[in-house]
Amino acid sequence: MKTTNETTQWDTRSVSFWLTLLIASGIIFVGARFIVNPAGGAAGFGIPFSNTADYAYGRIKGIRDIFSGLVLLPLLWLRMRKAVAYVFTSAIIIPATDCLIVFATKGPTDVPHLLIHGLTAVFMAVISVLLFRGHDVNN
User: Fold this and answer.
1) Which stretch of DSSP H or E encloses residue 100?
2) Phi and psi dihedrals of 47, rounded to 5?
3) Within 13 Å and on the Cβ side, how many CA atoms surround 60?
4) Chain-centre distance of CA 61, in angstroms?
5) Which of 55, 84, 88, 135 is the most exposed place for a label (fewest CB within 10 A)?
6) What would the pLDDT profile of 88-104 be if each residue is shown by its tens digit?
């Protein structure tokens, strides 16, 4: 049985590399915001806290967001395109369900927050296609 290693290069010349890094960095920033300013993070999410007792939940969300971004960084550093593709694609569930949670909580009238979460999921799906295709504009 013959085994082969993938020989195509995937690095900083790839659009999908930078778009993945952008999303990873963005979610780390969002998580840090929830830890430092839980009320601001919750308002930015689309469901503001009703009292300061809720801040602990914001900080819990914050550390999970930070992890979601950090988990991609070593894979990017090691140029592990397939691993990045699988982890990144699996993470689409986060903005998709965030959109559904905002919709279930506030209804269809909160268009800005629905668009933030929904378009993030769509943007991530496009990046996932680039990652799985194995090539993009600069490769």
Assistant:
1) helix 93-106
2) -130, 90
3) 5
4) 13
5) 135
6) 999 999 999 999 999 99
Residues 6+ apart with CB under 8 A from 31: 61, 62, 63, 64, 65, 66, 67, 68, 69
d(C-alpha 16, C-alpha 137), whole Å:
9
Residue 4: helix, strand or coil by DSSP? coil
State which H helix or E strand residue 99 sits in. helix 93-106
Tokens standing for residue 90:
């699996």
DSSP string of 74-129, one letter each residue: HHHHTT-HHHHHHHHHHTTHHHHHHHHHHHHHHGGG-HHHHHHHHHHHHHHHHHHH
Q: What is the pLDDT confidence band of residue 3, given thresholds at 50, 70 and 90?
A: very low
- CA 132 – CA 73 distance, rounded (Å): 18
